[in-house]
Amino acid sequence: MKKFIAALFSALFLAGLPTALNAADAQAQEKPTLRKMIAQMIMVSFNGSDPKTAKEAVSEAKYQRFGGVMLLGKNISDKKNLKALTSAFKEAQEGIFIAIDEEGGRVTRFKDKEDFETFISAQKVAKTLDLAAAGELYAKMAQQLKDVGVNVNFAPVADVLNPKSTIIGSRGRAFSADIDEVSLYASEFMKASQARGVIASMKHFPGHGNVEADSHTAKVVIENFDYGELKPYFDAVRKNEAKMIMVGHIYLMQRDAELPASLSPAVIDGLLRGELKFDGVVISDDMLMGGLKDFTLQEKVINFINAGGDVMLFSDYKIDGRRTAELVTQLVVDAVGAKQIPKERIEESYERIMKLKNSIK
User: What letters, b where the CB count within 10 A reaches 16 and e where it falls short, cover 91-118?
Assistant: First the structure.
């Protein structure tokens, strides 16, 4: 009998069934290092339009230096090369975010690119199409993204339409001046996108539509914010349509006179997470925009994470000659070591990010 039990145990062990020791080893292997968790919080742009010319970024993705890439016009030549490029990133890192700005209208990375269909602006959609037709159009948009390997779209714009806005309204990027219409059309966009495996990232929380200045180049301040502008976000969270929300570099003076929304605990943890009950992924607008020019890179990174943000977006692959992901990761590691950022805050973001990545079809 003893020989039989010993033989049975040996057979089970060789068959690969876990022992207590193996289970512990597996658990230890599954637990990511601090650096790997931080890397998942970083999304960067890169150079190259095919696997060969983008080999540096693809290699960095393989070693998990960052958790996402953003496609710009320079990365796109035609469908064949773009599909090969996104496939290379996905082979290098399972679940990597591959993001793009595809709103329709003037904000597209496919303008004058071979083989790509382009779409009308959000404003024109709301003016000319009913909700069902809008849903069909956005389904085509999402399918085109899916077909070339994109899994995150920085859209829809959930801002209210104000023609005086130099960066939103005057460019037709918002659906309507009626916030109820904004909410309805944004919902169609998100449903169509996410049904096809493309995460839709609403923007620019808490609202950029009634601001005349452009946060790409300047500090933007809202003295008297109309909280009715939050309706699209409230509705999307309530209906479980909001999976990712982009926070803008906008000073919401009623909440925080010292920090822009993207760096403010009062806005992200307080308003978005606390009051609107959003528990999805919060992504920053580009951290290198002029709206954050009053802050050092270290200040931006530490404040964003402590405010409750999850993914930091950077439009440059390198900063001052150093790889952005490497530089930012070290800043965060040092901040955790100096107790400027709780490690638990990193773990929380990592869990949100991985949950979203695992949900992508």
Answer: ebbeebbbbbbbbbbebbbbeeeeebee
Q: Per residue, what are the HEC states of 177-202?
A: CCHHHHHHHHHHHHHHHHCCCCEEEE
Among residues 204, 243, 245, the alpha carbon closest in space to that of 225 is found at: 204
- One of 285, 310, 320, 334 is an active-site residue; which one? 285
Nearest residue to 310 (alpha-carbon basis) of 266, 360, 269: 269
Residue type (1 letter), 144: Q
Residue that the structure tokens 């982009």 belong to? 246
SS3 298: helix
User: The dihedral of CA 347, 35, 153, 157: what is its sign?
Assistant: positive
List, in sequence order, every beta strand (DSSP E) within the chain.
42-44, 68-70, 97-100, 152-153, 199-205, 220-222, 244-247, 250-252, 281-284, 312-314, 318-319, 322-323
- What pLDDT, in 10s, does the model give residues 38-94? 999 999 999 999 999 999 999 999 999 999 999 999 999 999 999 999 999 999 999
- Is 216 among the residues known to form the active site? yes
Whether the pTM exceeds 0.70: the reply is yes
Q: What is the pLDDT of residue 199?
A: 99
Structural tokens at position 18? 């876990």
Active-site annotation holds for 285: yes
CA-to-CA dists, residue 248 to 110, 180, 207, angstroms: 24, 21, 8
Domains of the chain: 41-359 (3.20.20.300)
Do residues 54 and 47 touch, judged by C-beta distance below 8 A?
yes
Q: What is the pLDDT of residues 297-326, one digit of tens each?
A: 999 999 999 999 999 999 999 999 999 999
Catalytic annotation, pick one of 50, 78, 101, 216: 216
- Under DSSP, the state recorded for 110 is -
The region, left, alpha or beta by phi > 0 then psi within -120 to 50, assigned to residue 282 is beta
- The mean pLDDT of 109-122, rounded to a whole number, is 94
Maximum distance among all Cα pairs of the chain, rounded to whole angstroms: 87
